[in-house]
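Example with several molecule types.
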Amino acid sequence: MCRGLIKSAPALSITPLSRSSTTSEETAPPLLELEFETDNHIVETKRLGKEFGALVAVANVSIKVQPNTIHAIIGPNGAGKTTFFNLLSGNLPPSQGRVFYKGRDITHLPLHRTAHLGIGRSFQITNIFPSLTVLENIRLACQALGRGNFRFMRSHKYFKAFEERAWEVIHQVMLEKEALLPARALSHGGQRKLELGIILAADPEVLLLDEPTAGMAAEQVPELINLIREVQQTGNKTVMLVEHNMNVVMSISDYITVMHQGQVLAEGTPAEIAANKVVQGAYLGQLYTDLKVN
Amino acid sequence: MEKSLPSPTTQNPFSAFIKNNRGVLITILCLLLLPFALALVDGQPISSVLANDPGQSKFYQGLAIEIFILAIFALSYDLLFGITGLLSFGHAMFFGVGAYLTGIMLKSFGWGILPILCLVFVAGVIMALLFSVVLPRVKGITFALVTLGLAQVFYIVIQSRELADYAGAEIGLQGVTPPDFLNPISQRLRVYYLGLVVLFLVYFFYKRFVDSPTGHVCVAIRENEDRATMLGFNTFYFKLVALIISAITAALAGAMHGLFSPIIRPGIASSHYTIAALLMVLMGGIGTLDGALIGAATFRLLSFWLEKWFGGASQVIIGLVYILLVLFLPYGIVGTWRSRQLQIKQGWSNLISRFTGKRESV
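Resulting structure tokens for the full complex:
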């Protein structure tokens, strides 16, 4: 089953549909599959690159993301994962290349527009409204895509729909007890859940999660992972995540892209990536050397 | 688990309003009765207050009108700085434009009050739009400095020799005669009540604004602008709305100043006056609105009484008081009170439960 896909090999641009159907794909004519896929990609990047002066953070990254999957991006520190995410979400303008969302070019879209298209993004460093309550945090997120933002002579209490939706989301991310506390009073894990809630409130089709479990206590991680899994399955959402925790990546992703020094090193299902010698060399190998140093 | 949402109040909005604003309504009532109370303390008959006879009551009414104007000014600064998080050092320009426009239009052109108010309104919007040119480009301290620059230009222009016929150069605009029905000398009590009404209309308008969806987004921008953008808010428009409302209010306060004070000095357009607004907001509590009112009252009364008691040394003592306030009330008077409220409540309930517990055991 060693089908670890190295970028330069011709078969590699073909994205397996799902874990179960991978075997049948190899025999099918590639052209047909390509046609089928281009119709179906929710997020696609074409030769995306970013340079900071002489430093090439991301170079020529072309990936295709299938809808309704969990697509993980892994790689050693400094591989350019977060920069790549920033390019995807529009937080950074790319030096070259394009980003497509449902076939539409969103490369130079203003930042506040991407949320309206259905892309929600979380950050490596928790990004919430610290002195507002959990409820207010989430209600603001509900409000962002609704109407009536400029009706400044009406109390927010008249906007019941936002409030109700906010409570729905609070139940979903299991923060009912903390709902009326200021966000800064929450534990780190709670804040990560809140940030997920903020993203979910807008009911996006694509969730970009940058290290959702970063800094969380080990016992809280499975809870959050189950939550992400559940959200993805019940809401038919596409999740892209950057993650360092290999257990998490291997257990929840449908598809993995490995980045190394700003480039795509390999793509494939978790099993393929685990078996890929090049990945082992670049990623796990580095881990082993890290261990030796320590 | 079911929703733990506090059930929406089913009582009628009027009684809910009274319940939510009890403190403010009591304050308004006290201020309504204040001129008469002062007269009684001074030993004057109530009829003398109605007749605007000179005396302690009339003097303090004048002081109170100054406080009302300052409070409106401080409120407008609180909306910009405390609620939306835009630090502007050019806020006095709005106030100055309102005051000078009113004075010039009254003195040199003989306009009526209503057209002047409309003009001030339009001027406020135009100035806000002028500030908004730099709004999306600069943030934080840079915005503060750009606004300072703009305001200083106005400050210099208003003192120029070329405009001396209208604006009175360095001395200030003198000889403005407000219409008889608003004359601060002969109709002091009426002006007092008018100031009170305008102040609390602005206050309740601001309260409602902060409570509205737009106000919530403004708070979100103060808290974390990047996050607000990522949620899908075009933050520029929200900042612009706050800026326009704030500018109009400050210009309105300026217009009232122009009507009330015998001489409009150029100092009201200088950065000192912006700092005064900042100080009032800081003393009262940033982003609380109530704090702006209390801060303005504290600011004016402190400088009045300290000057009365200590004369020339008062500036030093005022400085000391500010230092003490910042040391012991870091979130301002209202801010600290609110954050301590829970502790105070808990302390009381502890005390009561201990007391009742003892009685039960006996």
